[in-house]
């Protein structure tokens, strides 16, 4: 049996007629850049997220960059970033001449260690913080926003892996990415809500920030050919917006199915008695499982074994950001952020697709059981 990490073609085939029609409409009307489908998608996603403004941009990376730029982050500023995340989170900080201040993670949720965040706030002048809702599980935004407000720090939510994730915030449910000064989203083809290329979005409730980002994404011009600032070429393609309009209505169902797959994994691991060998993610309310990530001993050998069984896996992330060569000048050393360093040696993402069947889940778990049975027999 083959169980790929993701089945992107399978999702397309399910929606083929709708997607082909939506793309064909764009191709026929010729409005390929900032066409009406972009505005339609921005309205639809703003309503879905519960925000005043949603602005389509070229990628999730650009969403972070434009957010920081619009907030005035620049040369010499310091921005808190988790060290255990995708490179783009810190890359956006550096591109503006600011300095990333790396913070460790909670070893259970993989999100920012808010105790360490508080310590950094006390000892350093911080301009902004980027909480990453990693693997589809939202950070504790109520506590983080209280901290940020107390120290006058701007908040840019990196929700690129967490669209549709729910957050308990001051007595009601909110969507990840709808709480900070801005929320950033990616529609990269592997995301829970995806297009067929690069695409991103900035969400905000701040009218001034929305206006700045709208100008920045079109070379800093308003009106056309009159430039207030030096901006970027960062627009969501019309054809990608058309695809996202089709897919958005299926997002709640896909989120429910992802939680079902994650729950089935956890139950299958429990039936196999693997709780002592494997740390499974908790099925928390609002978790949308962009990845289903386990923590294991002998991670690399297990990944090689599963590959031979036809099972796709991936490692997010094999080297924390504070130990990357390009950040050597910041002075971090091995051992400085131990929870992230340990996670980088132990995490393994298993296949997580809304349409994954129990037979496939059981095959993955049985294969892992087989691996550890052999490992134990060799001890």
List the helices and strands and how they pair.
Elements: H1 8-29, H2 36-49, E1 53-57, H3 60-70, E2 78-82, H4 88-95, E3 99-103, H5 114-123, E4 128-129, H6 141-151, E5 154-158, E6 166-169, E7 172-175, E8 182-186, E9 200-204, H7 207-216, H8 238-248, H9 251-271, E10 278-279, E11 292-296, H10 299-308, H11 338-346, E12 347-350, H12 358-378
Parallel strand pairs: 2-3, 2-4, 4-5, 5-8
Antiparallel strand pairs: 1-9, 6-7, 8-9, 10-11, 11-12
Question: What is the number of helices?
Answer: 12
* Secondary structure category: alpha/beta
| Fourth-tier CATH superfamily name of the largest domain | Type I PLP-dependent aspartate aminotransferase-like (Major domain)
Order of helices and strands: HHEHEHEHEHEEEEEHHHEEHHEH
Strand order of the largest sheet: 1-9-8-5-4-2-3
Taking the sheet with the most strands, its summary is: 7 strands, mixed
CATH fold group of the largest domain: Aspartate Aminotransferase, domain 2
Could you tell me the radius of gyration in angstroms?
21 Å
> How many DSSP-defined strands?
12
Contiguous low-pLDDT stretches (5 residues minimum) are none
Bin the strand percentage. 5-15%
CATH class group of the largest domain: Alpha Beta
How much is the average pLDDT? 96
Instruction: Please tell me what the overall shape is.
Output: globular
- Indicate how many domains the architecture comprises: 2
**CA(first)-CA(last) distance:** 29 Å
What is the architecture of the largest domain at the second tier of CATH?
A: 3-Layer(aba) Sandwich
Residues in helix, %: 40-55%
């Amino acid at each position: 049996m083959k169980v790929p990490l993701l089945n992107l073609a399978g999702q397309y085939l399910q929606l083929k007629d709708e997607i082909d029609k939506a793309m064909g409409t764009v191709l026929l009307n010729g409005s390929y850049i900032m066409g009406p489908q972009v505005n339609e998608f921005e309205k639809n996603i703003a309503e879905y997220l519960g925000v005043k403004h949603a602005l389509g941009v070229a990628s999730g990376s650009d969403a972070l960059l434009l957010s920081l730029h619009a907030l005035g982050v620049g040369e010499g500023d310091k921005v808190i970033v988790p060290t255990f995340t995708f490179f783009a989170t810190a890359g956006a900080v550096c591109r503006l001449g600011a300095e990333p201040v790396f913070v460790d993670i909670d070893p259970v949720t993989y999100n920012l260690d808010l105790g360490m965040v508080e310590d950094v706030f006390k000892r350093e002048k911080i301009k902004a913080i980027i909480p990453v809702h990693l693997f589809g599980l939202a950070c504790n935004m109520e506590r983080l926003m209280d901290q940020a407000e107390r120290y006058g720090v701007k908040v840019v939510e990196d929700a690129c892996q967490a669209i549709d994730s729910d957050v308990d915030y001051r007595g009601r449910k909110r969507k990840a990415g709808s709480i900070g000064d801005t929320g950033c989203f990616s529609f990269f083809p592997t995301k829970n809500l995806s297009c067929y290329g690069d695409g991103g979005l900035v969400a905000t409730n701040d009218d001034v920030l929305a206006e700045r980002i709208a100008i920045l994404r079109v070379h800093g011009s308003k009106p056309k050919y009159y430039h207030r600032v030096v901006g970027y070429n960062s627009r969501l393609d019309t054809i990608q917006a058309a695809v996202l309009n089709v897919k958005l209505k299926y997002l709640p169902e896909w989120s429910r199915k992802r939680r079902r797959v994650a729950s089935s994994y956890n139950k299958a691991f429990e039936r196999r008695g693997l709780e002592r060998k494997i740390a499974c993610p908790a099925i928390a309310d609002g978790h949308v499982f962009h990845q289903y990530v386990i923590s294991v001993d002998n991670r690399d050998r297990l990944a090689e074994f599963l590959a031979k069984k036809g099972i796709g896996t991936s490692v997010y992330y094999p080297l924390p950001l504070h130990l990357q060569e390009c950040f050597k000048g910041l002075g971090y050393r091995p051992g400085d952020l131990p929870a992230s360093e340990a996670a980088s040696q132990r995490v393994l993402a298993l296949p997580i697709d809304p349409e994954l069947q129990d037979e496939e889940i059981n095959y993955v778990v049985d294969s892992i059981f087989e691996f550890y049975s052999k490992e134990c027999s060799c001890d």
